[in-house]
Write a structure and sequence with these properties.
Layout: E1 2-4, H1 16-30, E2 39-41, H2 59-62, E3 68-71, H3 76-102, H4 109-138, H5 144-176, E4 182-183, E5 223-224, H6 230-242, H7 247-274, E6 286-288, H8 295-298, H9 304-307, E7 309-311, H10 324-339, H11 348-375, H12 382-399, H13 403-426, H14 429-440, H15 446-459, H16 468-479, E8 495-499, H17 504-512, E9 521-525, E10 528-529, E11 544-546, E12 556-557, H18 560-563, E13 564-568, H19 574-577, H20 580-623, H21 629-677, H22 682-699, H23 705-732, H24 741-776, H25 784-791
Parallel strand pairs: 1-3
Antiparallel strand pairs: 2-3, 4-5, 6-7, 8-13, 9-11, 10-12
Length: about 800
């Protein structure tokens, strides 16, 4: 502070009592923001009409007198009193400028409410000044000491109010300049055993991050607060929490927080009761994006359900943080309900009635909780108790009883009831679920067998060459077959054939975040060679490339049978439940089932062709005995071994198919249907569907990379086996073996050696699968034990030298 004087007058010539009188008069003017005769504003920000972006004030400036000049002719004792009182003038000027700036319509309703509450404070302050002036004019004994005595009770409140003004202004200024303004969230409350460092107004400077409520909270957990609405309430809430040791400041913050929350809670009630987002100034905790509902089925990343309405970052007040998701979903559900043609009628009187009912419920719950606590029936950790007490205190500070919490919960239940009734009754959620089970999980698989019979020649072509229109027509014919169970299904028109460019194993491993490079293999999954095979079937048999396969060519081809997926056209609002994420999970299960069914069909075709060759060979032997018994003996021995290995492979494939359908999908789907029937909320429906997929992928070992690799290697071995069978059949179809007896015998011996490798590798991988299932049954799913018993129900693979067991029943 600097002192100065004017040449026209010199108060030093006046007696002390006269100096005190002119100082009191000047201070009364200055406290109203008007310059006095001997106390004046220094050139600078004061007096200011508004808080614009150029204003740079810290909390320390509020207690400074550097903005004023005091005549140096005044008595030093009077100057000391002036220095004590002038900060009140600074605070008042800041408050008036704040109210002028943030009462504009662009500042938002919450800032308007804050300004209204501050206007009430300044009115009381002005009334105090009027009383002081009256006392000064009428009481000859009125002194500067008495004036200071009357001003002291208001000084702390005025200072705290000015600090709030600067905090809001800085938050707005820093937000628009993208600077880092961070405040702690409710998750940063003190934990048991942690040191607590409450924030104080003096340390929260303009360019300094305020301390967290917990000494252990890191900056990574702090978010940038919004400069309007919810962000202002968050700032007021944090300051209210930090003022627990100052009753006067705490009462002031509670007053401002309660008034500022009124417009926010009004918009909250419109959102949770009517689904209307009345937010012209972008200050509510929910933000709306323009996302057409048709985009849900077209774009995996642009989902109506998740992106049309979102929680605005930094705009959630701490007293609503535990209920933010509930608030978001409540309005979402009502919007879905409205967009489907339904109407939500709720008058203002009804909203008031619900608010009153929520108040009564909150009061009753509070009394019950207090009684339980008094009886000692409430037990919680120190951290939970601290967080609960702070949240309860905030809720009470906002509306006096915390009734808005009960109101949110009641509105959430009602919105769920409306939407759930709409989905289940009007839009037939359960029949659609059953239809998806028919087509995607093949619970009525007869139509699919007919479809494969007709479409397999087309599907064994490379997937780029598959004619989808032809495959779609064949599927439509299979679904409309009068002998099929699903011919009367109401949703068969929504089933569409498509091709997935990514192989199944590669897709699953990509989801798991695992490299698709398979040890001892040639590369990615679902790639097989283009060599001709038995009846054109084996060309698309493999899901992965093995090294050193018999008859494998250099070119690897991804066939249509493995790229085949079924898609469903599901309209809004059911697309919110069965969105792209759910359909893709259905498709993964479908592709796995199709692969197993195709392997079963492939092994069956090898038996068919080998049986024909055996019948033909026996007929030829009866007519003309072979001149080269060596080739015949090798041929017969090789055919017998092929039949044995085929039975073992077929037993594993059928066991796996039976396990996935009967032991995994069927009981889990029944549990899901039961959970959906008993669901009370839409979230329960979504969670049931999510749990169903998670359990299916886990129990069908589609989420275990090690089991997936073993499985893919076994599929590769089946492919190698089909190549050996193909070569065997080609040799057996020769008209005369004696003309090429040495060459034929050598080729048969080569096939026998290749078969030995496949046989040994098959036994090894089956045993490895059994051991892995036993290992993971204790950590992932006990259902693995069921599959393990199916694979080796008689201990064949448990015995290294076992030759009986699985084949005994054939």
């Amino acid at each position: 502070m600097a002192t100065g004087g004017t040449p026209s007058s010199n108060p030093s010539r006046l007696p002390p009592q006269a100096q005190e009188s002119i100082v009191i008069e000047d201070l009364l003017y200055m406290l109203m923001g008007i310059e006095g005769k001997y106390i004046n504003f220094r050139e600078g920000p004061f007096p200011m009409a508004e808080l614009d972006g150029e204003v740079r004030l810290s909390f320390a400036d509020l207690m400074s007198t550097r903005f004023y000049t005091i005549h140096n002719g005044l008595d030093p004792s009077l100057i000391d009193f002036i220095k004590r009182i002038l900060p009140l003038a600074t605070c008042y000027t800041v408050i008036e400028a704040f109210c002028t700036t943030y009462a504009k319509f662009t500042a938002g309703f919450v800032n308007h409410a804050v300004c209204g509450a501050m206007r009430t404070i300044t009115k009381e302050y002005s009334l105090l000044l009027v009383q002081l002036e009256n006392e000064f004019r009428t009481n000859p004994d009125f002194s500067l000491q008495k004036m200071w005595y009357y001003l002291v009770p208001s000084a702390s409140s005025l200072q705290s109010t000015a600090e709030i003004c600067l905090a809001i202004h800085d938050q707005s200024r820093l937000y628009t300049s993208n600077a880092a303004t961070r405040f702690p969230s409710m998750t940063d409350l003190p934990r048991a055993g942690s040191s607590t460092t409450p924030s104080s107004a003096a340390t929260v400077a303009m360019d300094v991050d305020p301390p967290t409520l917990s000494g252990g909270a890191s900056a990574a957990n702090l978010i940038k607060l919004h400069h309007k609405g919810g962000g202002i309430l968050a700032m007021l809430s944090h300051r209210y929490i930090s003022q627990s040791g100052d009753p006067t400041a705490r009462k002031l913050h509670q007053y401002l927080l309660a008034h500022a929350s009124v417009p926010f809670l009004t918009r909250l009630r419109k959102w949770i009761h009517l689904g209307k987002l009345d937010d012209p100034y972008d200050e509510f905790m929910i933000v709306e994006h323009s996302v057409p509902k048709q985009a849900l089925a077209e774009d995996f990343n642009e989902k109506y359900w998740e992106q049309r309405y979102e929680i605005r970052k930094g705009a959630v007040p701490p007293f609503l943080e535990p209920y933010a998701t509930m608030v978001l979903h409540t309005g979402k559900y009502l919007n879905v309900y409205i967009e489907c043609g339904a109407a939500v009628h709720l008058a203002a009187e009804d909203m008031a009635a619900r608010a009153a009912a929520a108040t009564r419920q909150a009061t009753a719950l509070g009394n019950a909780a207090a009684a339980a606590s008094a009886r000692g029936n409430v037990s919680m950790s120190n951290a939970a108790a601290a967080g609960g007490m702070v949240l309860t205190d905030l809720a009470t500070a906002v509306d006096g009883s915390g009734a808005y919490i009960a109101e949110i919960e009641a509105a959430y239940r009602l919105a769920n009831k409306h939407l759930l009734d709409l989905l289940v009754n009007k839009h037939a959620l359960l029949p659609r679920l059953a239809s998806l089970k028919h087509y995607m999980l093949l619970d009525h698989g007869d139509f699919f067998d007919h479809f494969l019979d007709a479409a397999l020649p087309e599907l064994t072509r490379p997937y780029e060459m598959v004619r989808l229109d032809k495959v779609q027509s064949l599927l439509d014919i299979a679904m409309r077959n009068p002998s099929s169970v699903i011919c009367r299904d109401a949703y068969k028109e929504d089933v569409v054939v498509s091709m997935e460019k990514l192989p199944l194993l590669e897709q699953l491993l990509a989801i798991l975040g695992v490299s698709t490079t398979i040890p001892n293999g040639g590369g990615a999954s679902m790639m097989v060679d283009g060599a001709d095979s038995i009846g054109g079937l084996a060309g698309g048999a493999s899901t992965t490339v093995g090294s050193g396969t018999a008859g494998a060519g250099a070119n690897k081809v991804y066939h249509g049978i493995h790229a085949l997926v079924l898609d469903h056209k599901i309209d809004f609002p059911l697309s919110l439940v069965f969105g792209r994420r759910s359909i893709i999970k259905y498709q993964l299960l479908f592709r796995n089932l199709v692969q197993l069914k195709y392997l079963e069909r492939l092994l069956g075709s090898t038996w068919l062709y080998q049986s024909r060759i055996t019948i033909q060979r026996r007929g030829n032997e009866a007519q003309t005995p072979l001149a080269a018994p060596a080739a015949t003996v090798v041929m017969a021995k090789l055919g017998s071994r092929l039949a044995q290995l085929r039975m073992r492979m077929l037993a594993v494939v059928q066991a796996m198919l039976s396990y996935i359908t009967v032991d995994v999908i069927e009981p889990l789907h029944a549990d899901m249907e039961k959970a959906i029937v008993n669901a009370q909320t839409v979230d329960d429906v979504l969670n049931s569907l999510t749990d169903f997929f998670a359990n299916c992928f886990r129990d069908a070992f589609m989420s275990n990379s090690k089991l997936l690799r073993i499985y893919s290697k076994m599929v590769d071995l089946i492919t190698r086996y089909t190549h050996i069978c193909d070569s065997y059949i080609r040799l057996a179809q020769l008209k005369s073996l004696d003309a090429q007896q040495p060459a034929t015998t050598d080729r048969l011996i080569g096939l026998e050696r290749a078969l030995d490798k496949v046989d040994q590798s098959w036994s090894y991988h089956v045993r490895l699968l059994i051991e892995s299932l036993k290992l993971f049954s204790s950590t992932e799913s006990p259902r693995f034990l069921v599959f393990m018993n199916r694979l080796d129900y008689n201990g064949y693979y448990a015995d290294e030298n076992g030759r009986e067991g699985v084949l005994a029943d054939f």
